[in-house]
Amino acid sequence: MITIVLPTLNEKNYLRELVEKLLLSNSVISEIFICDAGSTDGTIDIIHDLARQFSCVKYYNNKRKFVSYAFNDVYPFATGKYMALLGSHALYPEHYLENGLHYLELGEADVIGGPLNQQGHGETGAAIAFAMSSKFGVGDTEFRTSKKKQLVDSVAFAIYRKSIFEHIGLLDETLKRNQDDELHYRIKSNGYKIMMVPEMECTYYVRDSFRKLFKQYFEYGLYKPLVLKKVSQGMRIRHLIPSLFVSYLILLPVLFLIINLLACIPLVLYALLALYVGFSATKNPILVTKIILAMLILHLSYGSGFIIGIKKLLN
After folding, report:
1. For 126-166, what is each residue's pLDDT tens digit?
2. Is 41 domain-assigned?
3. Range of the domain at 28
4. Residue 108 falls within a domain, yes or no?
5. What does pTM read for this prediction?
6. Domain boundary, last residue among 69, 88, 107
7. Which of 52, 61, 284, 294 is the residue whose CA sits 20 to 30 A from 15?
C-alpha cells in the first residue's frame, strides 16, 4: 500500500534500527527506497545488508544530494498507492504508517502526518527543542506547537495519496530548503486536504548546537520568499515577523536619534516576553539563558535569511 522514500547521509548509527522497526510494526509497506546522498561512514554497507535481508528494501544512489531529487527520481518506480517521505533523524511510533493509512482510506484527507515531539541531546539541545516547540519561538506552526487532530498548512514526515502528484507535479528541485512547505502549499491551493493526527506523533531530534541551528533557520528564511512567490496562498504573518524584527534592530540607532527611548520599547517587550517564556520552562538560570538564546537565534537567522532571499528575488 505504501512506498517509503527515506533520504540518508551518514546514518549508520540509526538506519538499521529505524528500518527494522518500521517493517516490524507496519504491514502496509510496499517498498522502502533508501536514497543515499554519498555517505562515507558505512551507511551504504548497511543499506546493502538490509536489502539482502528484506526484499522490499531498495538502494538508490542520490548523486544530486537533495531530498527533492531523491523523491522525484524514485517516484516513477513506486508501486504503492501512497507514498511516505520520512526522515532518518526521527523515531516513529508503532503502526505509524497503518494509523495514517486508516485516515487516508476513510477519505478524511489526502496527506496525513503527526505532530513532532522535539527532543535534543544535552542542555543546549534541550533548550533548542523547547524553543522550537514554543509559539514565541516558531509562531503558530501546528505540527511543532500543537498535538490535536486538525487540518493544517503543513506536516512533517507525511504520507501522500500518490495520485495527487499526477495533478500538481512533484517536489520543486530548485529549492534546497522548504521543499515540503512549497509542496504542501501547492497541495492545499489545489483543493487537497492535509491533516495532522495525534496517533502519528513522532520524536524528532533537533540540532545540538547554536551554530547548526543558525545555519538551518537561515536557509529556511533564505528560501521562503521563493516558496511564497511560487505559491502566494501560503503566506502567513509568522513568515514576516522575524524579518521585521531584524529590520527594526538594524534601524534602531536611527530610531533612537529620532524618538529617543521610545524606540527601545519593542526591544524591551521582546526581552520581557523571552524571559517569561524561558522561566515558564525551567527555573534553572543557565537553561533559561540558553532557551532565550535559542529563540533569538531562530528569529535573527530566519529573519536575516528572509531579507536576503527577498533581495535575491528582486535582483
Report:
1. 999 999 999 999 887 888 888 899 999 889 899 999 999 99
2. yes
3. 1-88
4. no
5. 0.85
6. 88
7. 294
